[in-house]
Amino acid sequence: MSPQITNKITTEQLQEMAALYALGALTQHEARAMEGHLAESQNGLAEELAGFEAVTTNLAFAAPEQSPRPELRQSLLTSIAKESSLASKEEPSTPIISSHNLSQIFSLRADEGEWRELGTGMLAKTLFVDQSRDIVTSLVRMMPGTALPPHKHRGEEQFYVLEGDCHVHGSCLGPGDFHRAAPGSIHESTYTVDGTTFLLIAPADYEILQLAR
Description:
Layout: H1 11-23, H2 28-40, H3 45-60, H4 70-89, E1 116-119, E2 122-130, E3 135-142, E4 147-148, E5 151-152, E6 157-164, E7 166-168, E8 171-173, E9 178-181, E10 186-187, E11 190-191, E12 196-203, E13 207-208
Antiparallel strand pairs: 1-2, 2-3, 3-12, 4-11, 5-10, 5-13, 6-9, 6-12, 7-8, 7-11
């Protein structure tokens, strides 16, 4: 655990924190406090930090360059080609969008994150990925007149409608309405007339079905 920066701090503690700062091993709060001490310091702390940073930079290039064995490189390329071939044959599903590099406490502002196209007329922005449970929390936006194909849920699905209309399982849901589907359940029809946005908590993908008409 990193030593805490307080208003009363010894020279030795500052030197230790400077070394950890150079290594990028401080928390965000500790790093900001350290930057405040650097701005106020009159005892050569900035010069000492520059020395630590020079050492960490040199360490990155200290290890001798190694070349992989030719057979290892060929094995890797073959494995990548095989996985790409299998992926191209799979039916389309909702992908996991890259998760954030989360700290213990994390906030994502309304203007942050990336909207990605999941299908024609449908966008999603990932808010959080729980990789241990394979659960994704995301915002989903469906344009007017768009629909999801019939699908089977591989795990529990929950969503909360924020705006617009969402027609699912014979019901028309609006802002403030909540919907839950159990693992293994089927949504034969999910669509919107005027467009909708909802908060979705669900597995990373679902099974596309071809139901008899």
